[in-house]
Amino acid sequence: MGGIYWLISKVMLFWHTVWDSIMSDHRVVGTNWQWVLAIVFLVITVRVVLFPIFVKQIKSQRAMQAIQPKMKELQEKHKGDRETLQKEVMKLYQEEKVNPLMGCLPMFLQIPVFIGLLHVLRHLKPGTSDHQMQLYGWSKEEFLSAVDARLFDAPIVAKFSSSTADLIKIDASSTAVKIVAACLVALMITTTYLTQRQMIKKTGWNTDPQQRMIQKFMLYGIPFFTLTSGWYFPIGVIIYWVTNNAITLAQQYWVLHKYPPPASASVNTVPFKSGGTAKVSEPKPSGFAALFSRAKEEAAAQRANGKGTVKATGGKATGAKATGAQATDSAANGAPSRAPRPGAKPINPKKGGAAKRQSG
Known about the structure:
Elements: H1 2-22, H2 33-66, H3 68-77, H4 82-96, H5 105-123, H6 130-133, H7 140-147, E1 150-151, E2 154-155, H8 164-169, H9 174-203, H10 209-229, H11 235-258, E3 269-270, E4 278-279, H12 288-312, H13 315-332, H14 349-359
Antiparallel strand pairs: 1-2, 3-4
C-alpha cells in the first residue's frame, strides 16, 4: 500500500500548491481553505479518472435489468437443478455481454483511495520525527502546515473520539471538534442514504429476493455503518466522503437521465411515495405516437359516453325493444316465440318441468 499512500499524498499536495498560489496563506472563517480544497479536488481527480467506469457501471445495471425476464424463465425451467441453472446463467451473460461484477467495480476502486487518505491523515500528528514527516513525498513545512490545518477551528486531523490529551497537542477545542465532526457525520449519513435512494427510486426494487436484500443493505446498512464509523474518522476523511457522495449524486442524476432504465424496469414498485408503493411511470409518447394515442383516447371516451347515455335514458325500454326484436326474429324463422308475454309472471323451470311430467 506504500505506492497508494505516496500517490494520494502527491495528488493532495499538488492541489494544495495550486490553491496556495491563489489564496493568501491565512485562515478565513477559522478555515485553512487550501487544505480543505485540496481534499475536495482529490475527490474530483479520482472521480474524473473513474467516470468512464462509472458509466459502464450504469450500463451494466441497465443490461442486468433488461435480461431479468430471461433470468426468470431460466429459473423456472431449471428449478431444482442448481448446477444447470448456473451454467445457463453464465451462458446468458456471455450472449448478452453482461458483466454483473461491473456494478461494484467503481466502489472497489475507490476503497484503496479512501484507505490511503485515512492512513495519510492519521500519519499527520505532532511529535513526529523529521524522517517520518518526509515519508510519502511530504516536506517538513507541508507536514506541519497540514497538521495545523482547520475547518471552522477544528483540525482536519482530529476526530470526534479524539481524547483531550490529543487535542491539547494540536491546540484544538474539544467543543469545536465535536460540533464540526457531528455536522459532517450527519451530512455523510444523509448523502450516503440519498445516493442509494436516488438509484432505487429511478430503477425500482429488484424482483430477485437476493438482489433486493442487497439494495436494502445499501440503502439502510451503509448509512448505519457511516454513523458508527464516523466516530473514528478524522475530519479530513469525512470531508472526502461527503464530497464523494455529492459528486455521486450529481453523476447519477446525469447518467440516469441520459441512460434511463429499460421498459422492463417499469413493472417494479418504487418506494418513497405517499400512499404506499407506485409503479414507475412509463415515458410519454411524442410526435405521431402522441397524436395517435390522443385520438384513441378520444374515441374511447366517446364510446363510453354513448353507452352511458343509453343506460341513463332508460334501460327498461331498451330491454323491451330487444325482447320484441327477438320475438320477431323467431316468428320470421318459423320457430315459436320464447319471449314472455307482457305482464306474465316468470315461470319456475323446476315447477314447469314437474308439471309436464305429471301431465305426461
